[in-house]
Amino acid sequence: MAKRQQKKKKSLWKRLRFKYKLSFFNESTLEEVWSFRISQLSAFLTFFLIAFFLIFITSLVIIRTPIRNYLPGYLPSEVRNTIIMNALKADSLENQLRVQSKYIDNISAILTGNMKVDSIQPLDSTSYIQADYDIPRSEEETNFVQSFEETEKYNLTELNPNPIATEGLFFYKPVNGIISAHYDAEIRHYGIDLVARSKESVLATLEGTVIYTGDDPKYGNVIGLQHKNGFVSIYKHNEVLLKEPGDHVVAGEAIAIIGNTGNLSTGPHLHFELWHKGAPVNPEEYIAF
């Protein structure tokens, strides 16, 4: 029995190493043009080496060339950030073109007499009048103001010891979205959660100054703004922050891109908090969402 198995192994090895002759003949003269000898083992090894070489070359081309960016999972984070920044720049250029178009339409209407100067509206939501801009007064307006001030200077009702905190303020919605979680101080949820579309712009609710930007393990990318009348607004779970500490922003200006960062985030949304004189307040009491 053992001898038979040994004979089979020798016979198999002999068949693998047995060489075959492959010849090529001229069809007209039947003359042998070219021939070579090859065994089954040699053919298998040759095929294996060719396949290995092709796989190696293909892998090298994918790894060393930009072709890998077109394969799922190979796009690096730097390229993603570049794509996001280019999308933001394209959006800014589109807004600027729209503003310029409105400006040209206003000028054209004024020159043709189809629009009164007093009826011209701001070109965009970020337009505002500087507080130090002195509007010239006519002589009648000056006399009226002096008369009114002289009459009302002894009016005690003008001395309000408890001014309204929101007097002169208009709160912008930080993002267009649906409220998924309301303000609840008992469970230490000092803000509201707004679910919105991915890459939606997060807007400053009031004019103010950026006082904080940073990355928090729980809340992701966070940005905070200081406003007048003692208000502070905080925006959490952002994908990208567009401002830095010390930057001045106007109401309605884009300060971040909504995201899904931080351990406490379960999807693209904005956690928005509003504080007044060091204490949290319910944003729904100040803003119509």
Q: Can you walk through the features of this model?
A:
With 289 residues, the protein is α+β, with helices and mostly antiparallel strands. 31% of the residues lie in helices and 25% in strands. The chain is built from four helices and twelve strands. The chain has helices spanning 2-17, 40-64, 77-112, 139-152; strands at 19-25, 32-39, 178-181, 192-195, 201-203, 208-216, 220-227, 231-241, 248-249, 254-258, 269-276, 279-281. Strands 3, 4, 5, 6, 7, 8, 9, 10, 11 and 12 form a ten-stranded antiparallel beta sheet that branches. The longest helix has 36 residues, at 77-112.
Could you give a quick summary of the protein structure above?
The chain is an alpha+beta fold and 289 residues long.
Helical percent range?
25-40%
Task: Give the CA-CA distance, first to last residue.
Answer: 90 Å
Q: Please, what is the average pLDDT?
A: 80
Tally of contiguous helical segments: 4
Order of helices and strands: HEEHHHEEEEEEEEEE
Largest sheet: 10 strands, antiparallel
Radius of gyration: 38 Å
Count the strands?
12
What are the segments in which pLDDT stays under 50 over at least 5 consecutive residues? 123-133
- Name the structural class: alpha+beta
Beta fraction of the residues? 15-25%
Describe the global form: elongated
